[in-house]
Each structure stands twice: as structure tokens, then as C-alpha cells.
């Protein structure tokens, strides 16, 4: 039985670690730049249209939004980074909050770092990857919006990201998907299942 066909429900929004729910279930979080498709990915994985709120305006997700899947685990939709219109001080504060969460949430099993398949990872993306690796976090990189590219271009993006990781001496699973066509979503579910089971 798939872990993803059961009941999915919104639990709570948190603005800092202390506001997160009791750490009673393993959890997977979704991180990445604003507008790359984190919330859409959650919807695709749980096969619901609008459990996580999405928008074509960057900066939609402003808090850490918790969803519970059956009695099995939590998904955490994190606010995106790199959105220019957010004031500098606000961005700093968020960076600290998210880092504190990622470093101290004992039940966190996997960070899903979403990167737009059409664009080379930015400096912020690369810094984040390096930070996760040096802090020995478990993460994977998912390339979103693959439906907007030819298969060839998707393969190219994947090998570019692979090369960037190799230059930093980092290994992590890399996978492309489309929340629109659902191509690759099953593979994403499989990765999550593996990390949850560990
Ligand atoms: P923030 O909450 O602002 O950090 O953004 P987010 O990363 O949660 O992005 P969101 O899921 O809201 O998606 C942003 C836009 O990209 C929306 O207009 C989505 O419809 C679109 N989008 C997301 N995933 C895909 C995809 O796989 N394919 C296509 N074509 N569009 C997508
Ligand atoms: Mg969002």
C-alpha cells in the first residue's frame, strides 16, 4: 500500500521551531527558491489539487506549513528564499529560522530541495546545498517543471546539477519531475518512502 493515498490534512502553520507540532512523526520538508513549485509538488505527491496553496506570484508560502499524511508522517512546506521583494532584514530572520529548524528538528528525515529544471542553480541554491552537505543533512534535489523542457534539456539540466555537486564533492539523489503532467512523481514518492523507512 502506498503511503500517499491515505488521508492528507493541514495541521498547523509555524513561524519558528518552537511552534512546530510535537515531534511524534517522521517528517519531510520542501525547501528552495520562491516560485520553483514546492507547494505544487506537495499537492502532486498527495494527489490533491489544493491542499498546499500555490500561486504564480512568488512568496506565496510565508510560514512553515505542516500537513499530516495518514498516521505516517508530516510534510513541511517551507517559505521560499531569494525573493527580491522581501526586505533584507526579513530575509535574514527567515534564513535563521529555517536553519534553526533544519538543524534541530530531530524527526526530520529528508530535505527535498526543489530547483527549477530550466535554470542553473543560483548562488543561493549552491550555498544552501553546500550548507546541507557540511551539516550532514539528508537531502535530495528535485528539478521541477520538467514539462516545460524537452527530454534532452531535462537530461542536460540533471547532468549540470550533478557536475556542480561533484565539484563540491557532494553526492545526493537528483530527479526531474512535473507536477503538471505527474511525470516522475512516483519516483519522488519512492525516494520519500525510502527515507521514511530508514
Ligand atoms: P513560494 O510559496 O512562493 O515559495 O512558491 P512555491 O515554490 O511553493 O511554488 P508554487 O508551488 O506556488 O508554484 C509556483 C508556480 O509554478 C505556480 O504557478 C505553479 O502552477 C507553477 N508550477 C509548479 N510546478 C509546476 C510544474 O511542474 N510544471 C509547470 N508547468 N508549472 C508548475
Ligand atoms: Mg509555496
Describe the structure.
- The structure is a single chain.
- The protein has 198 residues and is of the alpha/beta class.
- The protein is built from five helices and seven strands; from the N terminus they run ββαββαβαβαβα.
- The chain has a seven-stranded mixed beta sheet with strand order 1-3-4-2-5-6-7, with helices on both faces.
- The two termini are 17 Å apart.
- The model has no long low-confidence stretch (mean pLDDT 93).
- The site of magnesium ion (MG) has 5 residues, from helix 1.
Sum this structure up briefly.
This protein has helices at 38-46, 88-104, 123-134, 151-167, 185-197, and strands spanning 8-14, 27-32, 64-69, 73-77, 108-116, 139-144, 174-176. By secondary structure, it is of the alpha/beta class.
Descriptive keywords:
binds guanosine-5'-triphosphate; globular; binds magnesium ion; alpha/beta; 7 strands; 198 residues
Amino acid at each position: 500500500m502506498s503511503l500517499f493515498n491515505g488521508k492528507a490534512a493541514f495541521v498547523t502553520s509555524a513561524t519558528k521551531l518552537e511552534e512546530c507540532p510535537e515531534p511524534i512523526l517522521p517528517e519531510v520538508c520542501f525547501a528552495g527558491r520562491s516560485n520553483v513549485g514546492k507547494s505544487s509538488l506537495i499537492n502532486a505527491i498527495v494527489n490533491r489539487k489544493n491542499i498546499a496553496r500555490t500561486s504564480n506570484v512568488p512568496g506565496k508560502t510565508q510560514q512553515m506549513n505542516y500537513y499530516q499524511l495518514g498516521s505516517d508522517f508530516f510534510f513541511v512546506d517551507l517559505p521560499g528564499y531569494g525573493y527580491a521583494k522581501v526586505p533584507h532584514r526579513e530575509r535574514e530572520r527567515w534564513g535563521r529560522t529555517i536553519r534553526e529548524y533544519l538543524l534541530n528538528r530531530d524527526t526530520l528525515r529528508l530535505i527535498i530541495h526543489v530547483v527549477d529544471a530550466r535554470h542553473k542553480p543560483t548562488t543561493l541554491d549552491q550555498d544552501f546545498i553546500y550548507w546541507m552537505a557540511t551539516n550532514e543533512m539528508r537531502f535530495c534535489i528535485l528539478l521541477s517543471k520538467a514539462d516545460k523542457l524537452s527530454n534532452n534539456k531535462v537530461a542536460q539540466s540533471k547532468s549540470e546539477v550533478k557536475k556542480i555537486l561533484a565539484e563540491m564533492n557532494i553526492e545526493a539523489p537528483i530527479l526531474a519531475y512535473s507536477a503538471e503532467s505527474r511525470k516522475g512523481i512516483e519516483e519522488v514518492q519512492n525516494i520519500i518512502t525510502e527515507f521514511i523507512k530508514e
